[in-house]
Amino acid sequence: MRTVRAGYRVRYWDSVDDRTPKILHEPLTSKSDKLSSGKISHAQNAADTFTFKISTQNSYYQKLQVIVGIIEVENIFDGSIEFRGRILEISGEMSSAGLFYQEVTCESDLGYLNDMTLAFEKRVNNGPGEYLRHIISFHNSRVPQHKKFHIGTVTMNKEDGSDAPYLYTTYESTWEAIKNRLIDKYGGYIVLRQTERGNYIDYLKEVGEHKTSPIQLGKNIKSATRNISLADMMTQIVPIGGDLDTQQEEESSSTDIIRPQVNIGPVNGGAMSLSDNDLIAQFGIIRKVVVWSGITDPAILKSRGEQYLKTQKVALANWKVSVVDRSLIDKRYEKFELNNYHPIINAPLSGIEELQIIEKEIDILNPQSVELTIGADKLTMSSFNLQQQAAKKSMEALLQNQLAERKQAEQKLAEAQKELGKQMVEVSKATTRTALEASLSQTKTLLSAEEQNHQTLTSELERYQSMEGNYESSIALLQVQLTTSQTRIDNYKVVINEINTKLGKLEGNN
Predict the structure, then answer these.
(1) Residue 292: Cβ within 10 Å count
(2) What pLDDT digit, counting tens, does each position of 194-209 carry?
(3) Whole-structure pTM value
(4) Which of 221, 229, 422, 478 could be stapled to 461 by a disulfide with Cβ–Cβ 3.0 to 4.6 Å?
(5) Which residues of 162-171 are buried (b: 16+ CB within 10 A; e: fewer)?
C-alpha cells in the first residue's frame, strides 16, 4: 500500500542573499523541529499572511530576523508553494502553563509595495493599465532588486476606467495608490505571481477557474455560517467634484482652508443629491457624499453619480465554510484555490449554481481542515435580491421535501410496529427446530443491519446538532428516523427472545 506524503514544510532564510534554508517545521519525521501552530491566509486584493508560533523546543527559537528574514511554506503533497514572504513582526508570550513562545507574523512579497511612497503627479488618463505600469516603474526605480515587480497580464483596459481627463498620484505608498485609485475605483483584481524570474503583478478584470468538484453539505462541509451586511448602502448620494476656487491665495498653504467644490445643482434643478427611489421606499433615506476630485463639469459629474448609484456594490453576502480538503491525500479531488468557482450544494444556496472562493485559511497542523469564505465580496442590490429570491425558493423546496420525507418516515414507523405482530405469528406457527433456526438467523441478520443504520443516523444527527444555522427540519426528520430504527431493533430483539424460548422448550422435550 502506497504511503501518502502530505502536510506543510516551513523553510526559513536569514535574508534574500542566504542560500541555505533552515527547516522550521517538518511534518514527515517525528524527531525534526516543529511549530506549535501555523495559519496561512489568502484573500483577494491583499497580501497573503502566515502567522505561526515557535516554542523554546524549536532549534530556531529567538533566531529569526524581522523584516529581512524570509519564510516559505511548501505543500508536500503536490509540491506547490502556499506562502513566501518576509517576517513582519515577532512578539514573545508565555502561556498559562508557563511555556514560552514567539508569535511570528509574515506577509507575502506583495507587502514590498508598502515600502515605497509616490510623489504628487497629475497625469493624462490613459486607463488603469497605463496608470499601474507608471507607478510600478516609479516604485522599481527606487527599491532593491528583490522588491521590484514585473507587470504581467493586464486585462483592465482604458474603457474599464473613467472618463476623467486626469489621474493623480500623491504622497502615499505604492500599494495605497493601487488599492485606492485603481481597485476601489474601477474594480478588478491584483494577482501576485511568484516565479524564478521574479515577482509578476497581473491586473485582471476577472479571476478564477470554474471547477466541477462541489462544496456539499454532508460530504465535505463541516460547518457553515451565512454573513449578510448592508452597512455601506446609500439610497441618496451627493456627487462632489473638484475645487471651484483655483486662485492662488496667500493662505493657500493652510490646512484649514476649505474651498467650494463642483456639484450637480446647476444641471439637476438646484438639487445637489441623486436618489434611488426603490431603495428609499425599502430602507429610507441614507445619504452619503461621493467625491470625484478630477471632474469639474457638473453634467459629467451628474452622469457619473447616476451610474455609481445604479451599480453601487453595497450588499456584503457570503458564507464562511469549514471544509475537508481531500485533495491533500488524493489527486482525484480538485484543490480549493482562492478565486476559483465551485458548485455549492447546500439547501439555502441550491438555487445558485456556483460561488467563488474569496478567502482561504490553511491550518498547517491540521491540513485537511480548510476555512473558506465563499460568495461575492460585494454585490449590487439587484444581484443581492436575486440571490435572496433564489435562496428563498430553494429553502421552500427543501421544506416541502422534508415534510414529505417526514410523513414517509412516520408511515414506516407505523409499519414497523405492525411487523412485530406479524413476526410473532410466524414464530408461533413454526414447530420444527429447522424452521425456528432459519427464522432466528434471518432475524439476527436484520438486527445487525438495523443497528448499523441506527449508528449512521445517530452520527448524522450529532453532526447537524453541532452545526451553526437553522437545521431544525433536518434534525426533526432524523429524530423520527431514529425512533423508527430503534423500534425495529426492539422488535427484532423481542422476536429473537421468543424464538430462543421455543427452541429451549423443544430441547427440553427431547
Answers:
(1) 20
(2) 998 999 999 999 999 9
(3) 0.67
(4) 478
(5) bebeebbbee
